[in-house]
Amino acid sequence: MDHIGILPNFNGRAIHDFWKPYFKYNCNHGVCNAHHLRELVFLNEQHGQRWAKDMIECLVDIKKAVDEAKGSTDILFKEQIQKFGERYQTILDKGYKENPLPKKESTKKKRGRRKKTKTQNLLERLDEHRKEVLAFVYDFKVPFDNNLAERDLRMAKVQQKISGTFRSQDGANAFCRIRSLDTNPYLSPGLCTKCPEKSLALQLACALLKMPNQ
To answer: Which among 119, 139, 138 has a CA at the least distance from the CA of 127?
Structure first.
């Protein structure tokens, strides 16, 4: 990750899947809640964890409240934040009650960490990193998940692994320019008719792909 040269100089907020090495970088962090929802669904359906279903509903309700508020303000009311915070904590308490953490042994200290279940690990993540989990509540510019970033990267990996990779640096640069325009929300088909200059820019970028030696 250091070799790529992005995260070492990044000063914004990185939304990721809680891979521990990301936290060594000196930037703000947020945790992808799409990953959390998938884990919670699994725990509820496969392991009968009742608290997991409650947490799914809680996260979805918070997201709905944020989405509804975005049209008129850039922050939720303090009462809303407090209410959601109390609900969030109540669900965690329920989860800990269903899945008590292993007690520290008073005998001779053993090397390594105490063994925990996947459920216990998720509970601790949602508890100890709630600031990162709920970052989208306190700053509306923070997304609920990192799906957009994954979608943007997916096509580059498809081109690299399946579609014959990049034949030259110029071709790779052209591909990146096209993708940056194609994924821009302001260049959707419905808006291009209102912005002919941007539509033309998209056509020119697409033409680069047809140039020889790319």
So the answer is: 119
